[in-house]
Structures are given as C-alpha cells and as structure tokens.
C-alpha cells in the first residue's frame, strides 16, 4: 500500500535548518517522481520542490531556490527536503506526494511538476515553524 509519511519538522529559529524526510512509497518509489508542497494557515497549498524518478531533474519554487534542496535515496525509498536559511514565511505544514503520469496523462517536467492535481498519493504532513 502506498502511503507517504513525512517526518523531520519542528520549531526552528530564523536562519536555521531542518531535513524533512518522506518514506512509505514502497516498491513504487524507484519509478516515480516526487514532490514537496506546503500549506500555511489560511493559504492555499503551494509547490515547493520536485525531483524526477532518477534524481536527474529537480525543480523549485522561486521562493525557495538557493535555500532548499530536494534529493532521494533509492536504497531507503526516501525523498528528502533540506530546508535552510529559514524565515518565518516558511512556516507551514509540509507535504510530500507522488507524481502520477497516469493521473495527469503528462510526463514529469518543469511545467507539470508544480501542479498539485498531478499528484495522487499525499502524506499527512510535517509541521515546520520558524520563529523570528
């Protein structure tokens, strides 16, 4: 059963770092692209970063470029999001999700990676809170 599970969130001071993890994809992990999204209170869920099935392609929202790094470890079936130089605007519930070419009908690319509706399995999220 595919059920992403995020971990690694917490309370951190501005300028600090965390490493978020997402596991639970099982045998599907090695063949799928993965994405990270976040949702702050009162705001819509937004794209943060995504990575292709083999790690060769990564995409980032402009707001996190240069501060966040997405990566994956096939041996552990885990995708990571290293979040650094955090500021209070990064406070949100962070979700990982599996990209589905079957649902979207489109291959993973820079134009499709940010689209929430193209992801089919979502985790429950891990909270990141940044204090000023």
Structural class: mainly beta
C-alpha Rg (nearest Å): 14 Å
Whole-number mean pLDDT? 95
Per DSSP E runs of 2 or more residues, the count of β-strands stands at 11
Q: Quote the distance from N terminus to C terminus.
A: 40 Å
Summarize the structure.
This protein is mainly β. It contains 1 helix and 11 strands.
Characterise this structure.
This protein is mostly beta strands and 132 residues long. It contains one helix and eleven strands. The protein has one helix at 101-104, and strands spanning 5-7, 10-13, 18-23, 34-39, 46-51, 58-60, 68-73, 78-83, 92-99, 119-122, 126-131. The strands form two sheets. Strands 2, 4, 5, 6, 9, 10 and 11 form a seven-stranded mixed β-sheet that branches. Strand 5 (46-51) and strand 6 (58-60) form a beta hairpin. The N and C termini lie far apart (40 Å). The mean pLDDT is 95.
Topology:
Elements: E1 5-7, E2 10-13, E3 18-23, E4 34-39, E5 46-51, E6 58-60, E7 68-73, E8 78-83, E9 92-99, H1 101-104, E10 119-122, E11 126-131
Parallel strand pairs: 2-11
Antiparallel strand pairs: 1-3, 3-8, 4-5, 4-9, 5-6, 7-8, 9-10, 9-11
Relevant terms:
1 helix, 4-stranded antiparallel β-sheet, globular, mainly beta, single chain, 132 residues
